[in-house]
Amino acid sequence: MIKDRDAYARLRENEHWDALRAMSLDESIAVLEALLTSELMDIAVFPDDDQPVSLARSLGIPDQRLQKPA
After folding, report:
1. Three-state secondary-structure class, residue 2
2. pLDDT (tens digit, 0 to 9) for every residue of the chain, 70 residues total?
3. 66 in Cβ contact with 56 (< 8 Å)
4. How many folded domains does the chain comprise?
């Protein structure tokens, strides 16, 4: 039984961030892609949405890094 809710919440928050920090880049990308293509995005509201061309461009990743190798 949880007796100290605040302490438990802090513990869970720390565990949450530790799990995210332990993820590899590929795992992080997979989670992001899953979220972006999930039904959660159907209900998400972005009042200042400027309809970016792509996530990479909206993050400011240079065009050179976006080119696929030939």
Report:
1. coil
2. 889 999 999 999 999 999 999 999 999 989 888 888 888 777 777 677 666 567 777 777 777 766 766 5
3. yes
4. 1
The DSSP code sequence of 12-66 is HHHHHHHHHHHS-HHHHHHHHHHHHTSTHHHH---TT----S-HHHHTT--HHHH
Cα distance between residue 6 and residue 9, in whole Å:
5
pLDDT of the residue at 52: 54
36 touches 55 (CB < 8 A): yes
What tokens appear for 33 in the block? 């892609």
Structural domain boundaries, residue 17: 5-66
**Cα–chain-centroid distance for residue 45?**
16
